[in-house]
Design goal:
The chain is mostly helical and 232 residues long. It has one domain. 58% of the residues lie in helices and 2% in strands. It contains ten helices and two strands. It has a two-stranded antiparallel sheet with strand order 1-2. A hairpin with a 2-residue loop joins strand 1 and strand 2. Helix 1 runs antiparallel to helix 2, helix 3 packs across helix 7 and helix 7 packs across helix 9. The protein is globular. 36% of the residues are buried.
């Protein structure tokens, strides 16, 4: 495995993008906390999974999944409109990852970008024709199949990013309730009906992914069952 960017490297990169694009984020400090916590939670989950299922060390690498978690929202500072930040972030890492030291191999760069590309409800947002005019700046539109999390790395990133906010750990259910409240009642967020619509159609799918990760954390899978979902 090639040398990978560490957590501090992620924070430094995110800070640089914030400074380069001032005003695009509502709360930069909380954003940085979220990246750091997601990085750490991803790493903890992989450690726990390997402790319960040692054979997973052949497929899951702590530093890789943690890095994907840390980078999952790296597209947010790139544009004031946060719609499709997942796609912008993955594109940014695929284009510049080697140059900025995310990893030393282009194969690893693309794998890590895919680990976070399909997080939360981007699949539902992409499928909504009303959002098509918001794809400006995304030069290579992904195959829609890449927006459905199918592997363990993708699922762990989703679970981890939905397990923290503003430096606090919480359950996935609590986090989603928090997001619902903000996008319904906070004037800074509730002007985004596209996201609210995507949540309505995509939440059951997200909960299924997170339930799968919780089952892995709890050690409730038979080893052979884990292999159904595959790895990047």
């Amino acid at each position: 495995m090639s040398k990978l960017m560490d957590c501090q490297g992620v924070i430094n990169l995110a800070t640089k993008l914030i400074d380069k694009n001032p005003g695009n984020l509502h709360s930069p400090d909380n954003y940085l906390l979220h990246l750091e916590d997601t990085y750490k939670i991803c790493k903890e989950i992989v450690e726990t999974a390997i402790s319960s299922y040692p054979e997973l060390s052949n497929y899951l690498k702590e530093e890789e999944v943690a890095l994907a978690g840390g980078l999952h929202d790296i597209g947010r500072p790139l544009q004031e409109n946060q719609l499709f930040h997942e796609l912008r972030g993955a594109q940014y890492i695929e284009q510049y990852g080697l140059k900025i030291g995310v990893a030393e191999s282009e194969v690893d760069i693309y794998r890590i970008a895919q680990m976070f590309r399909p997080h939360y409800v981007v699949a539902e947002q992409f499928a909504d024709p009303d959002n098509s005019d918001q794809l400006n700046g995304i030069t290579t539109l992904p195959d829609s199949a890449l927006l459905i999390p199918r592997t363990w790395q993708e699922a762990i990133v989703i679970y981890s990013e939905l397990s923290n906010v503003n430096g606090n750990r919480m359950s996935v259910e609590e986090r989603i309730d928090d997001v619902k409240d903000r996008y319904t009642n906070d004037p800074k967020f509730n002007s985004n009906p596209a996201f609210i619509n995507a949540m309505k159609t995509g939440l059951d799918r997200v909960f299924e992914v997170c339930d799968r990760v919780q089952k892995l954390i709890d050690g409730d899978f038979e080893p052979e069952e884990i292999m159904r979902y595959g790895f990047l």
